[in-house]
Design a protein that fits this description.
Mean pLDDT: 95
Low-confidence stretches: none
Strand content: 15-25%
Number of helices: 11
Number of strands: 20
Shape: globular
Strand order of the largest sheet: 8-7-16-17-18-15-19
Length: 437
Protein backbone atom coordinates (compact mmCIF):
# COMPACT_ATOMS: atom_id res chain seq x y z
CA UNK A 1 0.00 0.00 0.00
CA UNK A 2 1.39 3.40 -1.05
CA UNK A 3 2.07 5.80 1.76
CA UNK A 4 1.59 9.52 2.15
CA UNK A 5 4.60 11.87 2.14
CA UNK A 6 4.09 14.90 4.36
CA UNK A 7 6.60 17.68 3.59
CA UNK A 8 6.89 20.37 6.26
CA UNK A 9 8.15 23.55 4.65
CA UNK A 10 7.56 25.04 1.22
CA UNK A 11 11.00 26.53 0.60
CA UNK A 12 13.20 25.23 -2.18
CA UNK A 13 14.23 22.13 -0.19
CA UNK A 14 10.62 21.14 0.38
CA UNK A 15 9.57 21.98 -3.17
CA UNK A 16 12.52 20.00 -4.53
CA UNK A 17 11.45 16.91 -2.56
CA UNK A 18 7.83 17.37 -3.67
CA UNK A 19 8.77 17.74 -7.33
CA UNK A 20 10.88 14.57 -7.20
CA UNK A 21 8.07 12.58 -5.53
CA UNK A 22 4.90 13.92 -7.16
CA UNK A 23 3.39 11.67 -9.77
CA UNK A 24 4.73 8.55 -8.10
CA UNK A 25 2.91 6.01 -5.99
CA UNK A 26 2.89 8.21 -2.86
CA UNK A 27 0.43 11.00 -2.14
CA UNK A 28 2.34 14.24 -1.48
CA UNK A 29 1.30 17.14 0.73
CA UNK A 30 3.39 20.25 1.42
CA UNK A 31 2.67 22.33 4.54
CA UNK A 32 3.94 25.91 4.34
CA UNK A 33 3.53 28.14 7.39
CA UNK A 34 3.62 31.40 5.45
CA UNK A 35 1.22 32.79 2.87
CA UNK A 36 3.51 31.85 -0.03
CA UNK A 37 6.09 29.21 -0.85
CA UNK A 38 9.71 29.88 -1.70
CA UNK A 39 11.24 30.72 1.67
CA UNK A 40 14.29 32.94 1.20
CA UNK A 41 14.12 32.59 -2.60
CA UNK A 42 10.88 34.21 -3.67
CA UNK A 43 9.46 37.39 -5.16
CA UNK A 44 6.74 39.66 -3.84
CA UNK A 45 5.04 42.98 -4.53
CA UNK A 46 6.58 45.60 -2.29
CA UNK A 47 4.01 48.21 -1.27
CA UNK A 48 6.62 50.80 -0.35
CA UNK A 49 8.18 50.75 -3.84
CA UNK A 50 4.94 49.66 -5.58
CA UNK A 51 6.82 47.10 -7.66
CA UNK A 52 7.79 43.45 -7.57
CA UNK A 53 11.17 42.57 -6.04
CA UNK A 54 13.05 39.47 -4.92
CA UNK A 55 13.45 39.08 -1.17
CA UNK A 56 17.15 38.42 -1.82
CA UNK A 57 19.69 38.26 -4.62
CA UNK A 58 21.06 34.92 -5.76
CA UNK A 59 23.82 34.50 -8.35
CA UNK A 60 23.79 30.97 -9.72
CA UNK A 61 26.26 29.21 -11.99
CA UNK A 62 25.73 27.15 -15.12
CA UNK A 63 27.46 24.24 -13.39
CA UNK A 64 24.84 23.90 -10.63
CA UNK A 65 23.51 20.41 -11.51
CA UNK A 66 20.72 20.18 -8.93
CA UNK A 67 19.37 23.60 -9.88
CA UNK A 68 19.15 22.68 -13.55
CA UNK A 69 17.67 19.27 -12.84
CA UNK A 70 14.96 20.88 -10.69
CA UNK A 71 14.23 23.53 -13.31
CA UNK A 72 14.09 20.84 -15.98
CA UNK A 73 11.53 18.82 -14.03
CA UNK A 74 9.26 21.86 -13.64
CA UNK A 75 9.81 23.12 -17.20
CA UNK A 76 11.60 26.31 -16.18
CA UNK A 77 15.16 25.69 -17.37
CA UNK A 78 14.93 28.58 -19.85
CA UNK A 79 13.97 31.13 -17.19
CA UNK A 80 17.57 31.68 -16.06
CA UNK A 81 19.58 34.18 -18.09
CA UNK A 82 23.08 35.60 -18.03
CA UNK A 83 26.11 36.39 -20.14
CA UNK A 84 27.34 33.97 -22.78
CA UNK A 85 30.86 34.11 -21.35
CA UNK A 86 32.07 33.46 -17.79
CA UNK A 87 32.63 37.16 -17.09
CA UNK A 88 32.48 38.90 -13.70
CA UNK A 89 32.86 42.71 -13.64
CA UNK A 90 34.40 44.25 -10.50
CA UNK A 91 35.30 47.60 -9.01
CA UNK A 92 37.77 48.21 -6.19
CA UNK A 93 36.46 51.30 -4.41
CA UNK A 94 39.79 52.05 -2.74
CA UNK A 95 41.35 53.18 -6.01
CA UNK A 96 38.33 53.19 -8.37
CA UNK A 97 40.02 50.42 -10.35
CA UNK A 98 37.64 48.47 -12.63
CA UNK A 99 38.21 45.13 -14.34
CA UNK A 100 36.37 42.11 -15.68
CA UNK A 101 37.39 38.63 -14.62
CA UNK A 102 37.12 36.64 -17.87
CA UNK A 103 37.54 32.92 -17.16
CA UNK A 104 38.66 30.31 -19.68
CA UNK A 105 35.87 28.03 -20.84
CA UNK A 106 37.89 24.84 -20.41
CA UNK A 107 39.63 23.35 -17.37
CA UNK A 108 43.02 24.80 -18.32
CA UNK A 109 43.06 28.24 -16.63
CA UNK A 110 44.54 30.24 -19.48
CA UNK A 111 42.89 33.36 -18.08
CA UNK A 112 45.59 33.64 -15.41
CA UNK A 113 48.19 34.32 -18.17
CA UNK A 114 46.36 37.35 -19.54
CA UNK A 115 46.62 40.65 -17.67
CA UNK A 116 43.42 41.75 -19.40
CA UNK A 117 41.40 38.80 -18.10
CA UNK A 118 42.74 38.24 -14.59
CA UNK A 119 42.57 40.13 -11.32
CA UNK A 120 44.75 43.28 -11.48
CA UNK A 121 47.96 43.03 -9.49
CA UNK A 122 47.69 39.28 -8.86
CA UNK A 123 50.75 37.05 -8.85
CA UNK A 124 50.59 33.53 -10.27
CA UNK A 125 51.99 32.21 -6.99
CA UNK A 126 48.76 33.29 -5.31
CA UNK A 127 46.89 30.52 -7.14
CA UNK A 128 48.19 28.14 -4.51
CA UNK A 129 45.37 29.54 -2.35
CA UNK A 130 42.84 27.79 -4.60
CA UNK A 131 44.70 24.50 -4.22
CA UNK A 132 44.86 24.98 -0.47
CA UNK A 133 41.09 25.52 -0.33
CA UNK A 134 40.42 22.33 -2.31
CA UNK A 135 42.70 20.36 0.02
CA UNK A 136 41.48 21.99 3.26
CA UNK A 137 40.68 19.84 6.27
CA UNK A 138 37.37 20.28 8.13
CA UNK A 139 38.92 22.36 10.93
CA UNK A 140 40.58 24.95 8.68
CA UNK A 141 39.21 28.43 8.04
CA UNK A 142 39.46 30.32 4.77
CA UNK A 143 42.08 32.73 6.08
CA UNK A 144 44.41 29.76 6.71
CA UNK A 145 44.51 29.09 2.97
CA UNK A 146 44.80 32.51 1.37
CA UNK A 147 48.20 34.08 0.76
CA UNK A 148 48.43 37.86 0.95
CA UNK A 149 47.97 39.59 -2.38
CA UNK A 150 45.56 41.03 -4.91
CA UNK A 151 43.97 37.71 -5.87
CA UNK A 152 42.92 37.11 -2.28
CA UNK A 153 41.84 40.67 -1.53
CA UNK A 154 40.08 41.35 -4.81
CA UNK A 155 38.56 37.96 -5.56
CA UNK A 156 38.94 35.08 -3.13
CA UNK A 157 37.97 36.93 0.06
CA UNK A 158 34.87 38.56 -1.53
CA UNK A 159 34.03 35.19 -3.10
CA UNK A 160 34.30 33.51 0.31
CA UNK A 161 32.03 36.06 1.98
CA UNK A 162 29.41 35.72 -0.76
CA UNK A 163 29.46 31.93 -0.90
CA UNK A 164 29.73 31.21 2.82
CA UNK A 165 27.90 34.29 4.13
CA UNK A 166 30.64 34.19 6.76
CA UNK A 167 33.87 36.15 7.12
CA UNK A 168 37.12 34.49 5.96
CA UNK A 169 38.69 34.46 9.42
CA UNK A 170 35.93 32.15 10.71
CA UNK A 171 34.45 30.61 7.54
CA UNK A 172 35.04 26.94 6.71
CA UNK A 173 37.78 26.46 4.13
CA UNK A 174 36.47 22.96 3.34
CA UNK A 175 33.01 24.27 2.44
CA UNK A 176 34.46 26.97 0.22
CA UNK A 177 36.81 24.40 -1.30
CA UNK A 178 33.82 22.22 -2.20
CA UNK A 179 32.37 25.12 -4.19
CA UNK A 180 35.72 25.80 -5.88
CA UNK A 181 35.91 22.15 -6.95
CA UNK A 182 32.49 22.43 -8.61
CA UNK A 183 33.09 25.79 -10.25
CA UNK A 184 36.52 27.29 -10.91
CA UNK A 185 38.27 23.90 -10.95
CA UNK A 186 35.88 22.61 -13.62
CA UNK A 187 36.43 25.52 -15.98
CA UNK A 188 34.46 28.48 -17.20
CA UNK A 189 31.73 26.40 -18.83
CA UNK A 190 30.55 25.67 -15.30
CA UNK A 191 30.95 29.28 -14.15
CA UNK A 192 28.58 31.13 -16.46
CA UNK A 193 26.67 33.54 -14.19
CA UNK A 194 22.93 32.88 -14.13
CA UNK A 195 19.97 34.63 -12.51
CA UNK A 196 16.21 34.68 -13.06
CA UNK A 197 15.02 36.58 -16.12
CA UNK A 198 12.05 37.96 -14.17
CA UNK A 199 12.22 36.94 -10.51
CA UNK A 200 12.95 34.11 -8.11
CA UNK A 201 9.31 33.05 -7.82
CA UNK A 202 8.84 33.10 -11.58
CA UNK A 203 11.77 30.69 -11.98
CA UNK A 204 11.78 28.50 -8.87
CA UNK A 205 8.37 28.67 -7.20
CA UNK A 206 5.46 29.37 -9.55
CA UNK A 207 6.43 26.70 -12.13
CA UNK A 208 6.94 24.17 -9.32
CA UNK A 209 3.50 24.88 -7.87
CA UNK A 210 1.92 24.55 -11.31
CA UNK A 211 3.78 21.27 -11.86
CA UNK A 212 2.67 19.90 -8.49
CA UNK A 213 -0.94 20.90 -9.17
CA UNK A 214 -0.94 18.95 -12.44
CA UNK A 215 0.40 15.89 -10.61
CA UNK A 216 -2.24 16.28 -7.88
CA UNK A 217 0.16 17.03 -5.06
CA UNK A 218 -1.40 19.22 -2.39
CA UNK A 219 0.26 22.45 -1.24
CA UNK A 220 -1.21 24.02 1.89
CA UNK A 221 -0.03 27.55 2.62
CA UNK A 222 -0.81 29.19 5.94
CA UNK A 223 -0.42 25.76 7.56
CA UNK A 224 2.10 25.91 10.39
CA UNK A 225 3.07 22.58 11.94
CA UNK A 226 3.15 23.29 15.67
CA UNK A 227 4.26 19.87 16.92
CA UNK A 228 5.52 16.50 15.69
CA UNK A 229 4.50 13.53 17.81
CA UNK A 230 6.64 10.39 17.85
CA UNK A 231 7.44 7.47 20.05
CA UNK A 232 10.95 6.99 21.39
CA UNK A 233 12.77 4.87 18.85
CA UNK A 234 9.56 4.50 16.86
CA UNK A 235 7.95 6.38 13.99
CA UNK A 236 6.31 9.77 13.78
CA UNK A 237 2.67 9.25 14.74
CA UNK A 238 1.03 12.65 14.21
CA UNK A 239 1.48 16.23 13.07
CA UNK A 240 -0.29 19.03 14.89
CA UNK A 241 -1.32 22.17 13.02
CA UNK A 242 -2.87 24.23 15.78
CA UNK A 243 -6.07 22.39 16.66
CA UNK A 244 -5.81 20.12 13.61
CA UNK A 245 -4.29 16.70 14.13
CA UNK A 246 -2.97 14.67 11.20
CA UNK A 247 -2.39 11.00 11.93
CA UNK A 248 0.80 9.53 10.44
CA UNK A 249 0.87 5.81 9.77
CA UNK A 250 4.09 3.75 9.75
CA UNK A 251 3.81 3.59 5.94
CA UNK A 252 3.80 7.39 5.70
CA UNK A 253 6.93 9.52 5.57
CA UNK A 254 7.54 12.99 6.99
CA UNK A 255 10.17 15.23 5.42
CA UNK A 256 11.08 18.17 7.62
CA UNK A 257 12.29 20.93 5.28
CA UNK A 258 12.04 23.94 7.58
CA UNK A 259 14.82 26.31 8.71
CA UNK A 260 17.22 24.99 11.34
CA UNK A 261 15.74 26.95 14.30
CA UNK A 262 12.25 25.66 13.48
CA UNK A 263 13.48 22.08 13.16
CA UNK A 264 15.33 22.39 16.47
CA UNK A 265 12.14 23.50 18.16
CA UNK A 266 10.00 20.74 16.68
CA UNK A 267 12.60 18.03 17.32
CA UNK A 268 13.92 19.18 20.71
CA UNK A 269 13.09 15.77 22.23
CA UNK A 270 14.57 13.69 19.42
CA UNK A 271 17.65 11.80 20.67
CA UNK A 272 20.78 12.43 18.65
CA UNK A 273 19.39 15.38 16.73
CA UNK A 274 21.69 18.32 16.12
CA UNK A 275 21.49 21.40 13.95
CA UNK A 276 23.43 24.63 13.47
CA UNK A 277 22.62 27.18 16.16
CA UNK A 278 24.64 30.22 15.04
CA UNK A 279 23.50 32.30 12.11
CA UNK A 280 24.58 35.12 9.82
CA UNK A 281 22.48 37.92 8.40
CA UNK A 282 22.16 39.13 4.81
CA UNK A 283 21.26 42.71 3.97
CA UNK A 284 19.61 43.57 0.66
CA UNK A 285 18.89 47.13 -0.45
CA UNK A 286 16.61 47.71 -3.44
CA UNK A 287 16.81 51.18 -5.04
CA UNK A 288 14.00 52.24 -7.39
CA UNK A 289 15.08 54.53 -10.24
CA UNK A 290 12.81 56.76 -12.33
CA UNK A 291 13.96 54.83 -15.39
CA UNK A 292 16.20 51.89 -16.15
CA UNK A 293 19.85 52.90 -16.63
CA UNK A 294 21.39 52.28 -20.04
CA UNK A 295 24.56 50.28 -19.38
CA UNK A 296 27.62 49.69 -21.55
CA UNK A 297 30.59 47.33 -21.69
CA UNK A 298 30.95 44.33 -19.40
CA UNK A 299 28.26 45.58 -17.04
CA UNK A 300 25.73 45.63 -19.89
CA UNK A 301 26.63 42.02 -20.66
CA UNK A 302 26.65 40.72 -17.09
CA UNK A 303 23.95 42.95 -15.51
CA UNK A 304 25.80 42.82 -12.19
CA UNK A 305 29.08 44.04 -10.71
CA UNK A 306 31.15 42.93 -7.73
CA UNK A 307 32.26 45.61 -5.29
CA UNK A 308 35.53 45.34 -3.33
CA UNK A 309 36.45 47.54 -0.40
CA UNK A 310 33.01 48.79 0.57
CA UNK A 311 29.85 47.81 2.38
CA UNK A 312 28.23 46.58 -0.83
CA UNK A 313 29.29 43.28 -2.36
CA UNK A 314 27.19 42.86 -5.46
CA UNK A 315 25.02 45.30 -7.38
CA UNK A 316 22.41 43.79 -9.70
CA UNK A 317 20.73 45.83 -12.44
CA UNK A 318 17.11 44.70 -12.75
CA UNK A 319 15.30 47.14 -15.03
CA UNK A 320 14.47 50.13 -12.79
CA UNK A 321 15.76 48.39 -9.67
CA UNK A 322 19.39 48.45 -8.59
CA UNK A 323 19.64 45.76 -5.96
CA UNK A 324 22.58 45.48 -3.55
CA UNK A 325 23.62 42.47 -1.49
CA UNK A 326 25.66 42.68 1.71
CA UNK A 327 26.63 39.23 3.01
CA UNK A 328 27.94 38.31 6.48
CA UNK A 329 25.92 41.28 7.68
CA UNK A 330 26.17 40.53 11.41
CA UNK A 331 29.11 42.95 11.35
CA UNK A 332 26.66 45.77 10.61
CA UNK A 333 24.05 44.77 13.19
CA UNK A 334 24.83 47.79 15.33
CA UNK A 335 24.62 50.27 12.45
CA UNK A 336 21.48 52.28 11.78
CA UNK A 337 19.96 51.28 8.43
CA UNK A 338 19.15 54.92 7.67
CA UNK A 339 22.85 55.62 8.09
CA UNK A 340 23.94 52.73 5.87
CA UNK A 341 21.60 53.46 2.96
CA UNK A 342 23.30 56.70 1.75
CA UNK A 343 26.73 55.09 2.05
CA UNK A 344 25.59 52.13 -0.02
CA UNK A 345 23.98 54.43 -2.61
CA UNK A 346 27.28 56.29 -3.04
CA UNK A 347 28.98 52.94 -3.66
CA UNK A 348 26.31 52.04 -6.22
CA UNK A 349 26.90 55.32 -8.04
CA UNK A 350 30.66 54.68 -8.08
CA UNK A 351 30.08 51.20 -9.51
CA UNK A 352 27.41 52.02 -12.09
CA UNK A 353 28.07 55.57 -13.33
CA UNK A 354 31.26 54.84 -15.36
CA UNK A 355 29.38 52.15 -17.31
CA UNK A 356 26.11 54.06 -17.77
CA UNK A 357 25.25 56.51 -20.54
CA UNK A 358 23.91 58.95 -17.93
CA UNK A 359 24.86 59.36 -14.27
CA UNK A 360 22.59 58.09 -11.54
CA UNK A 361 20.75 60.62 -9.36
CA UNK A 362 22.89 62.10 -6.59
CA UNK A 363 19.92 62.20 -4.25
CA UNK A 364 18.94 58.99 -2.50
CA UNK A 365 16.12 57.35 -4.52
CA UNK A 366 13.17 55.43 -3.03
CA UNK A 367 14.45 52.23 -1.47
CA UNK A 368 13.56 49.10 0.45
CA UNK A 369 15.97 47.54 2.94
CA UNK A 370 15.48 43.84 3.67
CA UNK A 371 17.54 42.48 6.57
CA UNK A 372 17.31 38.71 6.98
CA UNK A 373 18.72 38.22 10.49
CA UNK A 374 19.04 34.43 10.22
CA UNK A 375 19.61 34.14 6.50
CA UNK A 376 22.00 31.17 6.75
CA UNK A 377 23.84 29.19 9.37
CA UNK A 378 27.27 30.60 10.15
CA UNK A 379 29.48 28.49 7.88
CA UNK A 380 32.21 27.85 10.44
CA UNK A 381 33.91 24.48 10.99
CA UNK A 382 32.12 24.12 14.34
CA UNK A 383 28.69 24.80 12.86
CA UNK A 384 29.36 22.53 9.89
CA UNK A 385 29.90 19.65 12.32
CA UNK A 386 26.39 20.19 13.72
CA UNK A 387 24.67 19.67 10.36
CA UNK A 388 22.60 16.46 10.32
CA UNK A 389 22.21 14.00 7.49
CA UNK A 390 18.99 13.14 5.67
CA UNK A 391 18.12 10.18 7.90
CA UNK A 392 17.08 10.47 11.54
CA UNK A 393 16.62 7.94 14.34
CA UNK A 394 12.92 7.78 13.47
CA UNK A 395 12.26 5.40 10.58
CA UNK A 396 9.73 7.65 8.85
CA UNK A 397 11.29 11.08 9.48
CA UNK A 398 13.73 12.64 7.01
CA UNK A 399 15.42 16.04 6.97
CA UNK A 400 16.02 18.52 4.17
CA UNK A 401 17.29 22.08 3.99
CA UNK A 402 20.42 24.00 3.08
CA UNK A 403 21.49 23.63 6.74
CA UNK A 404 21.67 19.83 6.52
CA UNK A 405 24.87 18.01 5.57
CA UNK A 406 24.86 18.70 1.84
CA UNK A 407 28.63 19.17 1.60
CA UNK A 408 28.00 22.73 0.42
CA UNK A 409 27.36 26.03 2.21
CA UNK A 410 23.80 27.32 2.53
CA UNK A 411 23.01 27.87 -1.15
CA UNK A 412 20.11 27.28 -3.53
CA UNK A 413 22.08 24.39 -5.01
CA UNK A 414 22.48 22.85 -1.55
CA UNK A 415 18.81 23.32 -0.65
CA UNK A 416 17.63 21.63 -3.85
CA UNK A 417 20.13 18.81 -3.41
CA UNK A 418 18.86 18.17 0.08
CA UNK A 419 15.27 17.86 -1.12
CA UNK A 420 16.29 15.44 -3.86
CA UNK A 421 18.26 13.39 -1.31
CA UNK A 422 15.18 13.15 0.91
CA UNK A 423 13.11 12.01 -2.08
CA UNK A 424 15.67 9.30 -2.85
CA UNK A 425 15.48 8.18 0.78
CA UNK A 426 11.69 7.87 0.46
CA UNK A 427 12.12 5.69 -2.61
CA UNK A 428 14.74 3.59 -0.86
CA UNK A 429 12.46 3.15 2.13
CA UNK A 430 9.66 1.97 -0.13
CA UNK A 431 11.96 -0.25 -2.15
CA UNK A 432 11.05 1.43 -5.43
CA UNK A 433 13.50 2.85 -7.96
CA UNK A 434 13.70 6.63 -7.96
CA UNK A 435 14.34 8.94 -10.87
CA UNK A 436 17.98 8.79 -11.93
CA UNK A 437 20.09 11.46 -10.23
Amino acid sequence: MAGHVHIIGGGLAGLSAAVELAGGSEQVTVYEAGPACGGRARSYHDRQLDCRIDNGNHLLLSGNPAVYRYLGLIGAQDTLVGPQRPVFPFIDLADRLRWTLDLSRGRVPLWVLSRRRRVPGMRLAELRGLLALMEATPDMVVADCLPAGSLSRRLLEPFAISVLNTMPDTGSAALLGAVVKESLARGGRNCLPRFPAIGLSESFVDPALAHLAVLRAQVRTGSRVSAVEFTRGGPVTALLLGTERIEISPDDTVIMAVPAPVASGLLADLPGFSAPDAFEAILNVHFLLPQAPVLTGGLAQARFIGVVGGISEWVFAKDRILSVTVSAANRYAGRDLDELAPLIWNEVRAAIDPAATAPLPVALPPLRIVREKRATFAATPAQDRLRPGTQTMLPNLLLAGDWTATGLPATIEGAIRSGAAAARAVHARKGVPGRPG
